[in-house]
Amino acid sequence: MPEPKPIIRKAILADIPRMAELLRGLFSLETEFTFNAAVQSRGLGLLLKDSRSLVAVAEMVEKVVGMGTGQRVISTAEGGPSILVVDEAWRGHGIGRRLVEHLVDWAGTYNATRIQLLADTTNTSALQFYQRLGFEQTRMICLRRLERKG
User: pTM value?
Assistant: First the structure.
């Protein structure tokens, strides 16, 4: 019997606690981020309300097992995944690929001319995953100004 396919759908507010759990796992892999459930939940809520964003979830057996977010960047007509995470127990089942395809299709409805994303250089499995989906590493680097403390 073939394995069931994930259901990809737009996230709703009730999905936020589970999405925050998924982000906790992702942030444990990425050194740039510190997980804070309240902050991540608030951010997900803002993305859900933003007409320039898409928050999608993947369900298997009526459980959210993955999520992806996409945001349109108007000034450069680009868009694409900004967060992508699949529950470790469900990796390797095509869920991440389906989420990326859903986000890329969404960006295409807004005539995005480029799809880009950021990934932690130490997350080699994510980098290999994105390369398999046709993403190429560029020479661009991310620069960030951190808030001063004190």
Answer: 0.80
Asked if pLDDT for residue 78 goes beyond 70, the answer is: no
The pLDDT of residue 52 = 87
Residue 82 belongs to domain spanning? 7-132
Rounded to 10°, the helix 37-49/16-27 angle is 120
Is position 44 within any domain?
yes
Per-residue CA distances from 115 to 33, 54, 67, 81, 104 (Å) = 23, 14, 18, 8, 7
In single-letter form, the type of residue at position 50 comes to: D
pLDDT band at 47 (very low <50, low <70, confident <90, very high): very high
CATH number at residue 99: 3.40.630.30
